[in-house]
Write a structure and sequence with these properties.
The chain is an alpha+beta fold and 527 residues long. The protein contains 16 helices and 23 strands.
C-alpha cells in the first residue's frame, strides 16, 4: 500500500463515529452498543485515565453516568473538556431530575437522557443526538474534470458560491483496473453553522476589547468563547485557560447557581440584564463585580450566546467617591470665586464713594452714585450665587430683594420694595440685566420726582403668560411708582432691554407703571 493509500485508509478510520460510554455498570455500555448501528465504535470506560486516553484518541460523543467511582458528572465534564473542549458530553442517568438537567446544560453538557427509557424510545433519541453532534457528511464523489485534487485540501465555499462552508479533510482519485480515472472521492465536513456562530460571537465580543471593563463572550451553552485582558486581571485566569470552559464551573460559586437560573429566565425575554455578583477568582478568593449580560441572537431571534461586561464594584465605588469629591471641590471653588468677585466690586464701590465726596459738582456726584448703584447690583448677584448651590441660576426674588436693599436713598424720602415675583430661577446674565434695568428705572424716577413728596416704588415680575400652548411663555418686569410717573428708559436701559429680547409695553397708567415684556430662552430660565 502506497503512502497516499495509507493516508486515505487512516482518514477513513478517522471518519468512524466513536462514542465513549462512562459507567461503572458494563451492561449500560453493551445496551448502548446494541442500540447504535454497527458502524459506530462504542468504547466502554470506567476510570479517569481511560477517559483521558480515549478522548485524546478522538471521539464524537461522550455518554456519562451522573456519578462514577472517581467523581460526579461535573468532574467528568471538566476532564473531557480539558482534553477536547468541543467534545459533546451527554448526561445519561436513571433519574428524571429536571433541575439537574438544566444545571448540566448550563455547565456545558450537550444534552440529558434518561437511561431507564425503553429501547424503542432511547434508540431514536441516541441516533438523533449522534447525527446532530457528529456534524460530518458521507463520502462525496465528484466526476473527474469538475474539481482538481489539490482543491480538496482547502477550506472554501462550494462551486455554486452558496452560504455553505465545507471542510475537506482528504481527496483521492478512484481509477479502473486500466488506470483510467473515474472520479474523485472526498471526506467533507459541513461547518457552516459552527463558523457562523464563531464569527458572530467573536465579532461582537472583540468590539469590547478596548473597554476598561472585563468582556466575556459565551456561546449558547455558557462556554467561554472570548476573554479580554481586563477579564484576565479581574479573575486571574489567562485567556488560554478560560476559553472553551463553562463560565459556571470557572467563576460561579455553587450557592449562586439558583440566582443565575433567574438571570437566564430573564434573558429569554429581555436583551440585557444587570446585577451584582460575588464571583470566584483563580486563586479561590472572591471579587464583588457589577455585571451586565447582553443576549446575542440570530436573525430568527434565537439566542446563540451572550456577552458579559464586568466591573470591580470596589473600583466603581472608589471612582464614585472621587467624582463626588471633585464635584464638591468644584462647587467650593466656584463659591469662593463669587465671594472674591463680590468683595472686589465692593472695593470698587468704596473707591467711587471716596471720589464722590471729593467731587464738588452735584451732577458729577449723581453720576458716581449711579455707577455705584449699578456696581452694587452686580455684586449682589455674586453674593446670592455664593450663598446658593453652584448651579449657575439665581432665585430671582432673593436677588431682587438684595438689589433694592442697596438702592435705599440716603435722605430716606423713598421706599423701594419687591412685590410679587414669579417662582423661577433665572440665568445669571439675564438676572443681572433685569437688575440693571430696575436700577436705571428707580434712579431715574427718584431723580425726577418731587422732593417734597415721599416716593414709594414697587418692583415685580409677573408670568408666565401665553395665549396658546404653542406660544412661547413670556414674563413682565413691572416697576410702579406712587408719584404717578415712572421715568422712561434711558439709552443704557434700552440696550439692556434689547439684550433680553424685551419690548416695553405701550403707554403709562395713571398710577405710574412701566411694563417690559420679555421671553426667556429655555437655557435662561428654570420654572
Amino acid at each position: 500500500m502506497g503512502g497516499a493509500e495509507r493516508k486515505w485508509a487512516q482518514a477513513e478510520r478517522d471518519m468512524i463515529t466513536r462514542v465513549l460510554v462512562l459507567d461503572d455498570a458494563p451492561d449500560t455500555c453493551e445496551r448502548v452498543r446494541g442500540l447504535l448501528p454497527a458502524s459506530v465504535d462504542v468504547v466502554c470506560i470506567q476510570d479517569r485515565e481511560a477517559l483521558r486516553t480515549a478522548v485524546r484518541a478522538g471521539a464524537h460523543l461522550l455518554l456519562t453516568e451522573r456519578a462514577v467511582a472517581w467523581g460526579d458528572w461535573q468532574a467528568v465534564l471538566h476532564e473531557a473538556h480539558e482534553a477536547a473542549p468541543a467534545l459533546p458530553v451527554v448526561l445519561l442517568t436513571g433519574t428524571g431530575d429536571e433541575r439537574l438537567a438544566v444545571r448540566a446544560l448550563r455547565a456545558g453538557a450537550a444534552d440529558y437522557l434518561r437511561k431507564n427509557l425503553p429501547d424503542h424510545a432511547l434508540q431514536p433519541a441516541l441516533r438523533r443526538l449522534l447525527a446532530a453532534q457528529s456534524g460530518r457528511s458521507v463520502l462525496e464523489a465528484v466526476p473527474v474534470g469538475e474539481v482538481s485534487p489539490a482543491a480538496g485540501h482547502a477550506d472554501a465555499p462550494p462551486p455554486d458560491d452558496s452560504a455553505c462552508t465545507r471542510e475537506t479533510t482528504m481527496v483521492r482519485m478512484v481509477r479502473q483496473a486500466d488506470e483510467h480515472a473515474l472520479f474523485y472521492q472526498a471526506i467533507v465536513h459541513d461547518i457552516t453553522e459552527r463558523e457562523r456562530r464563531r464569527h458572530e460571537l467573536t465579532r461582537q465580543a472583540a468590539a469590547l476589547d478596548q473597554l476598561p471593563s472585563g468582556a466575556i463572550g459565551l456561546d449558547d451553552r455558557l462556554r467561554v468563547t472570548y476573554w479580554n485582558r481586563r477579564a484576565e486581571e479581574l479573575y486571574g485566569y489567562a485567556a488560554a485557560d478560560a476559553l472553551g470552559r463553562s463560565i459556571l464551573e470557572l467563576v460561579v460559586p455553587p450557592e449562586n447557581l439558583p440566582f443565575l437560573d433567574v438571570m437566564e429566565e430573564q434573558l429569554a425575554s429581555e436583551d440585557r440584564v444587570g446585577f451584582e455578583s460575588d464571583d470566584l477568582r483563580a486563586d479561590g478568593s472572591r471579587v464583588l463585580l457589577q455585571k451586565w449580560i447582553t443576549a446575542v441572537r440570530d436573525e430568527a431571534g434565537r439566542r446563540i450566546g451572550s456577552i458579559e461586561v464586568v466591573d470591580d464594584m470596589e473600583e466603581l465605588r472608589q471612582r464614585e467617591r472621587q467624582l463626588t469629591q471633585a464635584l464638591a471641590d468644584r462647587d467650593a471653588l466656584i463659591r469662593e470665586v463669587h465671594h472674591r468677585v463680590k468683595n472686589s466690586l465692593q472695593v470698587v464701590s468704596s473707591l467711587l464713594s471716596v471720589q464722590a465726596r471729593q467731587a464738588g459738582a452735584p451732577a458729577l456726584r449723581r453720576l458716581v452714585d449711579q455707577c455705584q448703584a449699578r456696581i452694587r447690583a452686580i455684586a449682589a448677584a455674586h453674593e446670592v450665587l455664593y450663598e446658593a448651590p453652584a448651579h449657575g441660576t439665581l432665585d430671582l426674588r432673593r436677588y431682587m430683594e438684595q438689589v433694592v436693599a442697596r438702592l435705599w436713598p440716603a435722605e430716606r424720602r423713598a421706599t423701594i420694595a419687591v412685590g410679587h415675583v414669579a417662582p423661577v430661577r433665572v440665568d445669571v446674565d439675564l438676572s443681572v440685566s433685569l437688575a440693571l434695568i430696575v436700577v436705571d428705572l428707580v434712579l431715574g424716577t427718584l431723580e425726577h420726582a418731587d422732593r417734597r413728596r415721599r416716593v414709594d416704588i414697587t418692583v415685580a415680575l409677573e408670568g408666565p403668560m401665553a395665549l396658546t400652548r404653542t406660544e412661547t411663555p413670556h414674563y413682565e418686569l413691572v416697576v410702579r411708582a406712587s408719584t404717578g410717573r415712572v421715568q422712561a428708559l434711558s439709552g443704557l436701559a434700552e440696550v439692556l432691554v434689547e439684550q433680553i429680547r424685551g419690548v416695553p409695553a405701550p403707554g403709562v397708567r395713571d398710577d405710574g407703571e412701566l411694563r417690559i415684556h420679555f421671553s426667556p430662552a429655555p437655557t435662561e430660565l428654570i420654572a
